[in-house]
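Worked example 3 (structure in, sequence out).
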């Protein structure tokens, strides 16, 4: 069975290597469809988490809140209920949900009530396709490419959820962490020992900074999801490139934070999600980290 699967994938990658246009067309088509699905994941995952937390609280508190009227929870999963217009409740048909194209044809409005549909939806679909193509071009039609593309999709989802809710769900970060370790069992990107040390070092470094900052200031400087996301990149990249990654993420985060405070009336007390900067810096490091690190060390000499 395993031999048959290996034979199939070897032949499949051989066909794609011989037909670059087919390879890029395949990546583009799949990524656009996935990008549409990521919009659903980004919107619904926090709501699913909120429902779970509420039920757990009611079960934990029990008799203490029996006289409080229970909140009516709408059952929600990634597949149910069907997508509708938030303004008029119009059921979105399949031909109104074609990535990018439907939004352009409908001119960014609901076909029923003409309520505006956010440009963010096609933007995420387009970004998913473009970033996936960059990965495909970088690694070519090889075994590692679909896994890095899968990581890219996960990072897009985490970035948007963190921007919206300052959450990095374990349902996404932990599978990416284990996937990174599994990918490196045979040293695909880095030796397995480096991947394991990288995952531990990634988590423990930010965990230590978190507690040091809390002891000194009494405030929490970041969330536990940031530790896990940093561990994800440790598992994929090994420990050697983690200093470069955190340096890039910190610089970008600082610049954006200063910009928000100066031009967007962002209050100093308001939190700024760090996950998106980790995600961007980690993705760049995965593709071009070795070259960037070599250039950086040359500047120090």
């Amino acid at each position: 069975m395993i031999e048959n699967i290996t034979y199939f994938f070897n032949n499949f990658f051989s066909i794609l290597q011989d037909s670059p246009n087919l390879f890029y067309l395949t990546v583009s088509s799949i990524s656009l469809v996935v990008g549409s699905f990521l919009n659903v994941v980004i919107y619904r995952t926090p709501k699913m988490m909120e429902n779970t937390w509420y039920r757990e609280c009611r079960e934990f508190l029990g008799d203490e809140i029996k006289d409080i009227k229970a909140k009516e929870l709408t059952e929600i999963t990634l597949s149910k209920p069907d997508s509708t217009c938030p303004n008029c409740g119009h059921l979105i048909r399949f031909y109104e949900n074609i990535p990018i194209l439907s939004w352009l044809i409908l001119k960014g409005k609901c076909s029923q009530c003409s309520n505006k549909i956010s440009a963010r939806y096609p933007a995420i679909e387009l970004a998913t396709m473009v970033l996936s193509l960059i990965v495909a071009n970088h690694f070519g039609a090889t075994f590692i490419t679909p896994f890095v593309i899968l990581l890219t999709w996960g990072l897009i989802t985490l970035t948007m959820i963190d921007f919206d809710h300052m959450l990095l769900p374990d349902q996404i970060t932990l599978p990416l962490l284990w996937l990174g370790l599994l990918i490196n069992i045979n040293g695909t990107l880095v030796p397995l020992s480096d991947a394991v040390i990288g995952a531990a070092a990634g988590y423990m470094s930010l965990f230590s900074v978190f507690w040091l900052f809390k002891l000194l200031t009494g405030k929490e400087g970041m969330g536990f999801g940031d530790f896990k996301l940093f561990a994800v990149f440790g598992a994929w990249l090994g420990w050697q490139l983690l200093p470069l990654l955190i340096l890039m993420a910190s610089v970008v985060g600082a610049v954006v934070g200063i910009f928000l405070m100066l031009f967007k009336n962002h209050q100093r007390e308001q939190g700024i999600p760090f996950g998106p900067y980790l995600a961007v810096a980690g993705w760049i490091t995965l593709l071009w980290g070795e070259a960037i690190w070599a250039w950086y060390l040359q500047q120090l000499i």
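Notes: The longest helix spans residues 20-61. Residues 256 and 262 are 10 Å apart (CA to CA).
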